[in-house]
Structures are given as structure tokens and as C-alpha cells.
Write a structure and sequence with these properties.
It contains five helices and three strands; from the N terminus they run ααααββαβ. The chain is mainly α and 230 residues long. The chain folds into two domains: 137 residues, Orthogonal Bundle (Helix Hairpins); 57 residues, no CATH class. The protein has a three-stranded mixed sheet. Helix 2 packs antiparallel against helix 3. The chain is rod-shaped. The termini are close together. Bound molecules: zinc ion. The site of zinc ion has 9 residues, from loops.
């Protein structure tokens, strides 16, 4: 095998290992606390606090209304049962009754608005509960799948490491250094020559370069510096 072929194989295996490592990291993340669930739990706590606050505001309005109603009833009784005869007194009571009734009307409106808010909060909590349940199922399913694939993943990682070690052992240190240097800047670092064109940068290669490729020395593309592979 030419050095360029070994390097191409090395690059491929390193790519596979990187993908497997990224997958392992994702698996570890999924095994830990789920940020989506935590966010939903937080939202639910906020929603519950809001619901408590709005429910207590509604109770307050109800108490206020009951109080106003009681006062209005007292005035009505006094006005219509004939117990109050003084015209000034009657007028004052009538005036107060009118004021109480208009206060009750506006209180009614505020109560209705508050009831709507409380109902919104209740619906939101139901929605969050559903979302939490669905998310818990998703997380459980993902973790089960991760666990099932764990042995295969470990095998694949071990195989990739073995391949990489085997290929690295066949290559001189200087060649590996060149490969690493290029790999840091260009991906892939090894580019196949297709019809005397570098597949990395898609520029045509001089005849001389293509000729050099038949030897075992590393040949780099003069344009993109990639290692050329015949
Ligand atoms: Zn090139």
C-alpha cells in the first residue's frame, strides 16, 4: 500500500471514530438530567404559582362582592320595608345603594376577567403535564435504544481504534506529522485525483505532479496542499 492510501484509510477510520465518540457523548448527555424536562418542570412551578396567586385574587374579589351585596341588601330592606321614613335618610340610602350596585357591576366584570385568567392557567398546567409525560416517554425510549446499542457501539469504537493503531504503525513519523498538520486546516486532508484534477479543490494538476503520484512519496496539491491519492 502506498503511504497516501494508508493515510486515506487512516483518515476514514479517524472520521468514523470521531463520529462514534460524538455519539458516545450524546449518549452520556441523554443518560444525565434532561434539560427539556427540567425546563418544563420549571414552567410548571411558575404556572402553579401564578394559578395560586390568581385564585387568591379571585377569592378576594368574591369576598368583596359578597360584602357589597350584603350592604346593598341591608339598604334595600331599609328602603322597602318602611322602617326609614326620614326623606334625607331615604335619599342617602338610595344614593348609597346606587353606588353599591355600580361597584358590584364593575366587580362582576373584574371577577369574570379573573375567572378567565384562572382557567387559562389551569389549561396551561394540563398542557405542561402532557408535555412532561410525552417528554418522559421520549427520554425513556432514547435511553433504552442507547442501552441496546451500547455493546455494538463499544465494539465499533474498539475496532476503529485498532485500525487506527495498525495504520499509524505502518507510517513514518514525518508522514504522520505532515498529515496531522494538513488535517488541522483541511478536511479531508487526503484528496483523490479524479481525471488529473484534485478532488479537494477541483483544480487541474500539472502533468509532473500526476507523474510523481506513481512513486511512494507523498505528493501535495500545489493549490490546496492536500495529500493527493491516485
Ligand atoms: Zn487541491
Amino acid at each position: 500500500m502506498r503511504q497516501s492510501e494508508l493515510l486515506a484509510a487512516l483518515e476514514e477510520w479517524e472520521g468514523r471514530l470521531a463520529a462514534l465518540s460524538a455519539e458516545s457523548e450524546a449518549v452520556s448527555r441523554r443518560a444525565g438530567p434532561d434539560p427539556v424536562s427540567s425546563g418544563l418542570v420549571r414552567q410548571r412551578e411558575e404556572g402553579e404559582a401564578r394559578l395560586r396567586q390568581r385564585t387568591s385574587a379571585l377569592r378576594q374579589l368574591e369576598l368583596e362582592a359578597a360584602n357589597l351585596k350584603e350592604r346593598a341588601t341591608r339598604h334595600e330592606r331599609a328602603l322597602y320595608d318602611g322602617s326609614v321614613r326620614n326623606p334625607a335618610d331615604l335619599q342617602r340610602r338610595q344614593h348609597e345603594l346606587d353606588s353599591l350596585r355600580s361597584q358590584l357591576d364593575s366587580l362582576d366584570e373584574r371577577q369574570l376577567e379573573q375567572i378567565e385568567l384562572v382557567e387559562d392557567d389551569e389549561r396551561e398546567l394540563v398542557r405542561l403535564d402532557q408535555a412532561l409525560q410525552e417528554r418522559a416517554q421520549e427520554v425513556a425510549a432514547a435511553r433504552a435504544a442507547d442501552e441496546q446499542r451500547a455493546p455494538t457501539r463499544a465494539q465499533a469504537e474498539a475496532a476503529a481504534r485498532a485500525e487506527i493503531a495498525g495504520l499509524t504503525a505502518q507510517l513514518p513519523e514525518s508522514v504522520l506529522r505532515t498529515y496531522r498538520r494538513i488535517s488541522q486546516r483541511r478536511q479531508p486532508a487526503v484528496a483523490r485525483v479524479v481525471g488529473s484534477t484534485c478532488s479537494g479543490c477541483r483544480l487541474p494538476l500539472p502533468h509532473r505532479i500526476v507523474e510523481e503520484l506513481h512513486g511512494d512519496q507523498l505528493v501535495l496539491c500545489e493549490n490546496c496542499e492536500r495529500i493527493l491519492l491516485l
